Give the backbone structure.
Amino acid sequence: MIRDITLGQYYKKDSIVHSLDPRVKLVATLIFLISLFISTNIFAYILATAYLITAIILCKVPFGFIIRGLKSLLLLLFISIAFNLFLTPGKVVFSFYAINITKEGIILALKMAIRLVYLVIGSSILTLTTTPSKLTDGLEKGLSFLNVIKVPVAEIALMMSIALRFIPTLIEEVDKIMNAQMSRGANFEKGNLIEKAKALIPLLVPLFVSAFKRANDLAYAMESRCYVGDSKRTKLRPLKYKRIDYITYIYLLVFIILIFLTRYIKIDSTLSIMGSFRGALKLYYER
Amino acid sequence: MGNIDVKNLIVEFDIFNADNEVVSKKRVIDDISFSVNEGDFVCIIGKNGSGKSTLAKCLNGLIIPTGGDVLIYGMNTKNEEQLIDIRKNIGMAFQNPDNQIVASIVEEDVAFGMENLGFSPEEMDKRIDESLKILGIQELRFAQTSKISGGQKQKVSLAGILCMKSKILVLDEPTSMIDKNGRLDLLNKVYELNKKEKITVILISHYIEEISFADRVIVMNQGKIILDDTPKNVVLKDELLNNAGIELPYITRMAKELKSFGKKLNGNEFSVEELCQFLK
């Protein structure tokens, strides 16, 4: 049934990640995304992988569930790998007719693939462990500093939560309108893409009309309950940091510092350190 | 002076043409006056387009009158600075239960009004508990608002009003979109609120059966008040009601028929019990 669709993809479970303040999770996701894009060498990727694995283990959500989001990404992943693989100039390692695959191409394609996959998994963990309403609460509180430059953060957050609240109502409405139009001969499944798009018009027009009517009614209802639209509102469940949240922040700080430090590790010098270590071993055995 | 004083109220809406120019004005409420006292249960009935919903919105300051005044505890709805105080005192539930729920979780929706007024979380918690208990829907506290029935949604919006400790409750056709059982259940709760919590109730309806809950009935037609009396007296004026497009309750019609056959009846009975009493 269409009305059984659950909002977002929240996966209910009792875990440390679930219990974290949504602001911490938002910051953690942001830091993870930044770390992916400033990573330049293998050490940074190892760190990021360790970070991701820790999050996956701690959130207790089945791994199969987490990687579900990757399905929709496959095409994008394929295209980006292909472009990087075939179109990067450099040292040719494999040649097939006019196609040259270079060493640089392979490395770049691999980097892009890892970045994309990690990006999706990282943000999936956020949405899997946080309810939509907590997420908007977190955004509201976390971005409240934007009030200084007159961005109506509280209003935007309320709009977001109302939008979320109306999704099931509108899905039901779509269901009703579709049935009504189908009973009068409308066909939403037959035809090519353009015909299908055209068939949506008799669905969308009544949907918009009723959505505007609902918006009008809701505005009355909100006004009658003393809503005036400034940020003096209080919250029934205000967000409060707990000890675990502060500890997580410290971990995040350490992580981002480590990621920055990896930028200063030179692969060559590491190799030469390893090389000289090997040389020393060789010398030792020769003796 | 009562709880609510409506003096020479006139409301006109602009009629626009296709070019968005005002071509004429439509008078929706035409010079009406009445007052309601504390603890009254008033039912306003009328057919569609009689102006009853507009009247309800005027009481809450959602529509500002074109002429005349609406005073709530002496505060005029035309005075914008007093609107918040007026809305604190006069809570309103609307026709479509779906379109008045703001939050995804019941308790969050009930708290919405209090959040707007700046209550502390502890106070909100306490009041949510109380109001859900009064309406008998404690078990719904953490339920999703999209998964409860229409009648339950109306109770949730009533709970939101009770939390704000409003002294007046305006219900704009709250039962028109819920089934018969839900309707009776809701109205019984409203009746209880009126009798136990001494909340003034203004029930707007087009179901004439619902006047049996009220102490006083106001009948509207074409923006005017045509009758203002007790339910028992109102149903005796069948000609006026017929002109206003309102059909009498089934039982009352039967009583009138029986009376015309020479039975000793008043012709204003509402319930089967009442009817049987006379027939004994």
